[in-house]
C-alpha cells in the first residue's frame, strides 16, 4: 500500500544477489569525461611529446621568445661557465651562451630535416606510384634502382652524396633525402598495386579516363595514407642522420650553430665542461623520442602504459 514501508526491505538477504542498479555505475561516471579529454589524460607520454615538439618549433621560428642572447656573441670572461641561473646550459670555450646556440640552431636542423623528408617523400612516392600502377618495364626499372639504393648503407650513401654536392645544410638535407627514397617508393608501390586492382579504378579505366587522371584522382589519394604515416615515423631518424653529418663537419660551417655541430664542438672539453656535449645531445635525443611517440599515435598504436 502507498505510504507504508516494510522494515528491512532494502537490505538483501544472505545469499541474495545485489541488483545491478545497486552497484556503482563506474562506466557511466567515466563517460561524463569528454572523449577527447580522456584521450589525452590516458596518454601523458603523448602530451609531453607534443609539448616538446611545440617547444622545438617555437625555438626554430620564434627564438627571441625563449632567449634574448646573441648566439654568436663571445664573452671570454665568461668562458666554460657551468649551467646556472644566468646561463641555463652554461657557456662554451668562447663564452657564448649554449642555450641561445641550441635555440637558434634548431632552425637549421629542422630545416634540413623537413627538406630531407620532403625529398624522400616526393621522389619516392612518385617512383612508387608509377611502378605500382604501370607495372611491366617501368616497374622493373624503378624497382631495380631502389634496390641499388637499399644495398648501400644509408650513412655511407649520404656521406658520398654530400662529398659530391659540397658542404652546407641544404646539401646535407638532399643527401639524407636520397637515402630514404627507396623506402618511400616501396611503400607507395605496394599501396598503388593494391588500389589499381580495385573496382572503382577498373570502372574509371573502362569509362575511358586517361591513366594520369586515374592516378591523380583515385590512386594517389587512397595510397597516400601509409606513406604520410611513414614520413612522420622517418622524421626522428632523419634528425639523427642530419645531426650525424653535421657532427662530422658537413653541415653549417662555424660559427653558425647547429645541433650536430654543437655536440662536435664540445668533444675536446668532456673532462672539464661536460655540458657542451651532453645538453645538446639530450635535446637531440628528446626530440627524436618525441617525434617517434607522435608517429606511433598517428600510426594507430597510441596505447599508453597505465
UniProtKB/TrEMBL annotation:
<keyword id="KW-0813">Transport</keyword>
<dbReference type="InterPro" id="IPR035906">
    <property type="entry name" value="MetI-like_sf"/>
</dbReference>
<feature type="transmembrane region" description="Helical">
    <location>
        <begin position="108"/>
        <end position="133"/>
    </location>
</feature>
<feature type="transmembrane region" description="Helical">
    <location>
        <begin position="227"/>
        <end position="252"/>
    </location>
</feature>
<keyword id="KW-0812">Transmembrane</keyword>
<feature type="domain" description="ABC transmembrane type-1">
    <location>
        <begin position="106"/>
        <end position="295"/>
    </location>
</feature>
<dbReference type="InterPro" id="IPR000515">
    <property type="entry name" value="MetI-like"/>
</dbReference>
<keyword id="KW-1003">Cell membrane</keyword>
<keyword id="KW-0472">Membrane</keyword>
<protein>
    <submittedName>
        <fullName>ABC transporter permease</fullName>
    </submittedName>
</protein>
<feature type="transmembrane region" description="Helical">
    <location>
        <begin position="145"/>
        <end position="166"/>
    </location>
</feature>
<feature type="transmembrane region" description="Helical">
    <location>
        <begin position="39"/>
        <end position="62"/>
    </location>
</feature>
<feature type="transmembrane region" description="Helical">
    <location>
        <begin position="272"/>
        <end position="291"/>
    </location>
</feature>
<keyword id="KW-1133">Transmembrane helix</keyword>
<dbReference type="Pfam" id="PF00528">
    <property type="entry name" value="BPD_transp_1"/>
</dbReference>
<dbReference type="InterPro" id="IPR050366">
    <property type="entry name" value="BP-dependent_transpt_permease"/>
</dbReference>
<feature type="transmembrane region" description="Helical">
    <location>
        <begin position="172"/>
        <end position="188"/>
    </location>
</feature>
<comment type="similarity">
    <text>Belongs to the binding-protein-dependent transport system permease family.</text>
</comment>
<feature type="region of interest" description="Disordered">
    <location>
        <begin position="1"/>
        <end position="27"/>
    </location>
</feature>
Amino acid at each position: 500500500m502507498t505510504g507504508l514501508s516494510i522494515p528491512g526491505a532494502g537490505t538483501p538477504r544472505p545469499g541474495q544477489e545485489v541488483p545491478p542498479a545497486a552497484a556503482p555505475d563506474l562506466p557511466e561516471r567515466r563517460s561524463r569525461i569528454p572523449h577527447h579529454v580522456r584521450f589525452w589524460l590516458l596518454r601523458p607520454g603523448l602530451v609531453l611529446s607534443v609539448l616538446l615538439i611545440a617547444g622545438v618549433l617555437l625555438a626554430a621560428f620564434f627564438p627571441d621568445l625563449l632567449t634574448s642572447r646573441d648566439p654568436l656573441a663571445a664573452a671570454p670572461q665568461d668562458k666554460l661557465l657551468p649551467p646556472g641561473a644566468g646561463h641555463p646550459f652554461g657557456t662554451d670555450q668562447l663564452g657564448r651562451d649554449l642555450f641561445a646556440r641550441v635555440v637558434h640552431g634548431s632552425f637549421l636542423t629542422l630545416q634540413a630535416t623537413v627538406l630531407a623528408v620532403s625529398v624522400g617523400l616526393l621522389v619516392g612516392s612518385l617512383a612508387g606510384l608509377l611502378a605500382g600502377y604501370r607495372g611491366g618495364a617501368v616497374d622493373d626499372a624503378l624497382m631495380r634502382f631502389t634496390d641499388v639504393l637499399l644495398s648501400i648503407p644509408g650513412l655511407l650513401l649520404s656521406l658520398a652524396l654530400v662529398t659530391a654536392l659540397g658542404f652546407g645544410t641544404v646539401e646535407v638535407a638532399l643527401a639524407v633525402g636520397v637515402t630514404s627514397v627507396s623506402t618511400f617508393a616501396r611503400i607507395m608501390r605496394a599501396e598503388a598495386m593494391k588500389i589499381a586492382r580495385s573496382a572503382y579504378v577498373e570502372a574509371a579505366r573502362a569509362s575511358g579516363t586517361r591513366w594520369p587522371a586515374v592516378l591523380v584522382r583515385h590512386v594517389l589519394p587512397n595510397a597516400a595514407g601509409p606513406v604520410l604515416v611513414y614520413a612522420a615515423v622517418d622524421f626522428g631518424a632523419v634528425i639523427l642522420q642530419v645531426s650525424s653529418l653535421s657532427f662530422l663537419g658537413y653541415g653549417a660551417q662555424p660559427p653558425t650553430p647547429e645541433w650536430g655541430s654543437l655536440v662536435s664542438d664540445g668533444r675536446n672539453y668532456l673532462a672539464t665542461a661536460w655540458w657542451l656535449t651532453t645538453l645538446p645531445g639530450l635535446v637531440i635525443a628528446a626530440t627524436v623520442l618525441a617525434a617517434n611517440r607522435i608517429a606511433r599515435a598517428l600510426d594507430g598504436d597510441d596505447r599508453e602504459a597505465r
